[in-house]
Amino acid sequence: MCGIVGYVGNKNATPVLIKALKKLEYRGYDSAGVAIYTGEEILVQKAKGKLLNLAEKITGEIIPDQVKKQDFSDTEMALYDKTGDFIKGCMGIGHTRWATHGEPSDLNSHPHTNMDGSISIVHNGIIENYADLKAKLQAQGIVFKSQTDTEVVVHLLDQKYKASGDIFKAVIETLHVLEGSYAIGVICKDYPDRIIAARKESPLVVGIGKGENFIASDVPALLEHTRDVYYLGERELAVLYTDHVDLFNFDGEKIIKQPSHVEWDMDAATKGGYEHFMIKEIHEQPKGLTDTMRPRIVKDASGKPVDVYFEENKMDEAWKKASRVVITACGTAYHAGVVAKYAFEKIARMKVDVDVASEFRYRDPILDPSDIFMVISQSGETADTLSALRLAKEQGLKVVAITNCVGSTVSREADDVIYTLAGPEIAVASTKAYTTQLLCLFLLAVKAGKLRGTLSDEEATKLLCELESIPSKIQEILDGKDVIQKFASQQFNKDKIFYIGRQFDSATSLESALKLKEVSYMHSEAFAAGELKHGPIALIDPATLVVAIASEPKLYDKIGSNMVEVKSRGATVMVITQDSGDAFEGKADLVCKIPECSSTLASLLTVIPAQLFAYYCAIMRGYNPDKPRNLAKSVTVE
Ligand code: M6R
């Protein structure tokens, strides 16, 4: 997720900004930049890669690789201080970028400037209508330097400023044209005494100092300077001067707000007040899903969702003609592929084969040029997945990739890329990447169904409307997490945990069991519920917890019978279901109810209690879920 900082005061802004960005490194980034008002002009410096690269570029000094590997070393800090000798100025903005539109590069890094360099902005979020706005601006002769969605904002602002001669008015007018989510920081050469900042659906904090004021995406960037902050609310603006801050709504009316005093220490602050990244990322799922979905759903004039559009998608013809989809991935991403098999069959009536990449690459797979080959990878760097991708390309197949990392190897080598816009995932155990992968797969299935004429317009609209309701339903589950926490406190010492389910729910069982074993080290397995009596039932005893996932009302009787079978052999049973309890009366020790949802899309919901259960079991067993033993976030070796 991008990080924004801004400073207006009496100190040299460049080192202040770079050090503040350093405190936002935990958010993940691929490039960085600053724009400083020097007294005469706005000077911009940006660099792909680490903040150290930016500091090297500014100072011309090269830091040895050994030092680069150390975090917060004295050499690094000294170099940041030195940047102030090269760019002098007491006001500026800075940014760390996590690429969403356009690869990581110097040009795509923020800040972005208007054509004459007199206005500069930093942005975190996604401008959903940027393609339309860009086309209009280009038609008027505006030359774009980057591939970003952000650049439209600064050119629009420039136009509006030229029309009114009032930068504040121009910012407000620009905000009214933008669709999507954003936190922005703006500086203008003609207003050397102020920073203008605004937010809608992306976080922004104003730090209140003495003779200096700040903006930042998150509190850790500010803690060295102040603990007094304004948390900007939805559709609020701040104008920061050296000695005071004015707050406004998007109509330009002044508002009064009480500052908050931050009590968190740095560690808690980087996790947004959560104890671990894993639980933070579990809670980020409603936002990650909204960000991933909103730009992709096409609506008609009345606002009714009618179709799906992936701007990166160049394979419509291939989707129309494909005889099969072949999916390969590893771990959690593979489980998303298993859900996709059910989804594509049901929604688009397409044949799907799913394989773990490490198996696929050593088989002699039978592939046909009319197959669509799909890889799914959060990191885009998993060695086995990459090899599978290359094998498919060698055989002449077109490859579509679903990944969370712009510029990753997978994204570069695939013919077509669909990005999950989950933001960086820091915890080793994948949570928000998984649900955003599922979402992209459901959207793709709808698109494929429409292209192939196997899904009616009415059915497509119904599914898309329901997808739009998923983030708030996940929020509902998160709000009721205490039930799961309590259940985990009773079960965390169990010897064996089995997840069972049918259809989509058997796929969710795989992911649920993986999550639990990864972070809590409890022995957990997943079985298709119908397979129980073909062997695994021999393992059931009173030390077993069975979690049944039951999202399909037509199969309640069947899974209910499986629950009775294991309960009568002494197992404790929890069921995750949308039924309010009647269907499983007397068959479960805990009914974990999820909001109502069609069984087609319910895997986006049923996995949430399982993620929470895994997290709480890990905590209760005394483990750090963010860094499970023996595991790496990205497996770049075989
Ligand atoms: O980056 P990728 O999605 O390609 O990674 C694949 C797996 O290594 C990954 O999903 C792994 O299973 C996670 N630790 C799951 O939580």
From TrEMBL:
Location in or out of the cell: Cytoplasm
Xref: InterPro entries: GATase_2_dom (IPR017932), GFAT (IPR005855), GFAT_N (IPR047084), GlmS/AgaS_SIS (IPR035466), GlmS/FrlB_SIS (IPR035490), Ntn_hydrolases_N (IPR029055), SIS_dom (IPR001347), SIS_dom_sf (IPR046348)
Catalytic reaction equation(s): D-fructose 6-phosphate + L-glutamine = D-glucosamine 6-phosphate + L-glutamate
Claim: Oxidoreductase is one of the keywords in the record: no
Coiled coil regions in record: none
Pfam families: GATase_6, SIS
GO molecular function: carbohydrate derivative binding; glutamine-fructose-6-phosphate transaminase (isomerizing) activity
Keywords assigned: Aminotransferase, Cytoplasm, Glutamine amidotransferase, Repeat, Transferase
Annotated active site: C2 (nucleophile), K633 (for fru-6p isomerization activity)
Domain SIS: 315-454, 483-628
EC number: 2.6.1.16
Cellular compartments per GO CC: cytosol
GO process terms (BP): carbohydrate metabolic process; fructose 6-phosphate metabolic process; protein N-linked glycosylation; UDP-N-acetylglucosamine metabolic process
Top-rank taxon, per record: Bacteria
Domain Glutamine amidotransferase type-2: 2-243
Complexes and interactors: Homodimer.
Role this protein plays: Catalyzes the first step in hexosamine metabolism, converting fructose-6P into glucosamine-6P using glutamine as a nitrogen source.
Protein's UniProt name: Glutamine--fructose-6-phosphate aminotransferase [isomerizing]
